[in-house]
């Protein structure tokens, strides 16, 4: 994987996904060596972040390297300066670019022009680093991924898109319940089902949350209104009525089901305190695993070796 970009979780093969998860588990258990000593990543962020920024910065430090944070006001990606020029300049300074953008096209343009790996740290289309941490968490809690039923309740957004694709790569069952006009993009469903046919996984789209979570091993939700969608907040609140993951909905899943949320959460909207603070919640383990999953990814694409 050395030198590769990660713009979509589907850029990985099932075997590469499994390798990254095994590396992450090993790093979490045994610690990590300074395999990126002397290397630096540039973090281009058009959107603010807590988990993504801190986990990448800490991860690089623990791997022996360093990170430089660059906000949109400092760089003006595609506004103050063309994306391709930014990519070519940064390629002379750093060993990798971690970009958190609105448009997926910005990531693609960065990757095309850069001479160093580009990692998608979130775009409007996907959030592959979150999906890596999600699968790492499920594997820890359930002991496996193949055949695990993951029920996502809510928006067919960037988080659910990457999770659907990752679940298909891992041979898991992914079922999502979304209201009309908020379903997964067609390309995600088609790509996920392509991989699922190879791995034995399942991609299922529904509209009924109760049907989706029935017998689920994992119940997952995300905010109804993401960054950049604030103007449609009231319309989304109305559309997602009945899609809240509360105690009664969790009771339809398996008794040992875990609850997941990528955070930040809008408590009282997509979920409630009784669930996110309840005994089935693993959201803070999930947040921690952003660090370990991203360390594995950085070591695999920027390190001289990817041994575990």
Q: In terms of topology, how is this protein built?
A:
Layout: H1 14-30, E1 40-45, H2 51-62, E2 66-71, H3 72-75, H4 83-91, E3 96-100, H5 104-113, E4 118-120, H6 128-142, E5 149-153, H7 158-170, E6 173-177, H8 186-199, E7 202-206, H9 209-213, E8 218-221, H10 233-239, H11 247-250, E9 258-261, H12 273-276, H13 283-302
Parallel strand pairs: 1-2, 1-3, 3-4, 5-6, 5-8, 6-7, 8-9
Helix pairs in contact: 1-6, 1-13, 2-13, 4-5, 6-7, 6-13, 7-8
List the keywords:
308 residues, alpha/beta, Rossmann fold, 2 domains, 5-stranded parallel β-sheet, 4-stranded parallel β-sheet, 13 helices, 44% helix, 14% strand, globular
Short description:
By secondary structure, the protein is α/β, with parallel strands linked by helices.
Polypeptide structure, described:
The chain has 308 residues and is of the alpha/beta class. The protein folds into two domains: 9-126 and 290-302, Aspartate/ornithine carbamoyltransferase (Rossmann fold, 3-Layer(aba) Sandwich), CATH 3.40.50; 130-287, 3-Layer(aba) Sandwich (Rossmann fold). The protein is 44% helix and 14% strand. The protein contains 13 helices and nine strands. The strands form two sheets. It has a five-stranded parallel sheet. It has a four-stranded parallel sheet with strand order 2-1-3-4, with helices on both faces. α4 (83-91) crosses α5, α6 (128-142) packs across α13 and α7 (158-170) packs parallel to α8 (186-199).
Q: Helicity, in percent?
A: 40-55%
Rg from C-alpha positions?
A: 19 Å
The parts where pLDDT drops under 50 for at least 5 residues are none
Q: CA-to-CA gap between the ends?
A: 14 Å
CATH fold title of the largest domain? Rossmann fold
Topology as H/E string? HEHEHHEHEHEHEHEHEHHEHH
Mean pLDDT: 96
Let me know the CATH homologous superfamily of the largest domain.
Aspartate/ornithine carbamoyltransferase
The description of the largest β-sheet is: 5 strands, parallel
């Amino acid at each position: 994987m050395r030198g590769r970009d990660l713009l979509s979780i589907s850029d990985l093969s099932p075997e590469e996904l499994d390798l990254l998860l095994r590396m992450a588990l090993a790093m979490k258990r045994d610690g990590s060596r300074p395999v990126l000593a002397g290397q630096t990543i540039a973090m281009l962020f058009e959107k603010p972040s807590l988990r993504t920024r801190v986990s990448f910065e800490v991860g690089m430090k623990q791997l022996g390297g360093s990170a430089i944070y660059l906000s949109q006001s400092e760089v003006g990606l595609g506004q103050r300066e063309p994306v391709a020029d930014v990519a070519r300049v940064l390629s002379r300074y750093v060993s990798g670019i971690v970009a958190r953008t609105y448009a997926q096209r910005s990531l693609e343009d960065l990757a095309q022009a850069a001479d160093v790996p580009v990692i998608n740290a979130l775009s409007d289309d996907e959030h592959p680093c979150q999906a890596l941490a999600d699968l790492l968490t499920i594997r820890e809690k359930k002991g496996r991924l193949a055949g695990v039923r993951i029920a996502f309740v809510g928006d067919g957004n960037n988080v659910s898109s990457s999770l659907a694709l990752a679940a298909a790569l891992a041979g898991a069952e992914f079922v999502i319940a979304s209201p009309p006009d908020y379903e997964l993009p067609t390309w995600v469903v088609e790509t996920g089902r392509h991989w699922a046919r190879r791995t034995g996984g399942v991609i299922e789209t529904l509209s009924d949350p109760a049907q989706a979570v029935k017998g689920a091993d994992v119940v997952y939700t995300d905010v109804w209104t993401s960054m950049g969608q604030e103007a449609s907040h009231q319309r989304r609140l109305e559309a997602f009525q009945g899609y809240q993951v509360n105690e009664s909905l969790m009771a339809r899943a398996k008794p040992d089901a875990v609850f997941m949320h990528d955070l930040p959460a809008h408590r009282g909207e997509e979920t409630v305190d009784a669930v996110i603070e309840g005994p089935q919640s693993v959201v803070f383990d999930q947040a921690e695993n952003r660090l370990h999953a991203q360390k594995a990814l950085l070591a695999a694409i920027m390190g001289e070796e990817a041994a575990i």
